[in-house]
Give the backbone structure.
Amino acid sequence: MGIGERLTALSDEIGRLRTEIAILEEQHAFVSEAAEDARIRALVSETPLADREYRTAREDAERTQASLSEAKERLERLRAEQDGLLERMFEQR
């Protein structure tokens, strides 16, 4: 695959990943808010059920944060690869 073809593929992949990140950010905001609500309910009610619901919500928020962080790291790697290819392309001219 040539540099131009790889740049096109990277551009497409970066676009898809940006969309995925936007969705993950929305999901994380929602899940984090639900975890905060569950935390408050657990503090107020002091029941084992409320504590379990909070732990579950907190774990969900941690998972969405991990997915979001991973997607952002992938995006940075793709951008770095794209930059490297662009430099090679300009050096060849």
Helices lie at 3-45, 48-91. The chain has two helices and no strands. The mean pLDDT is 95.
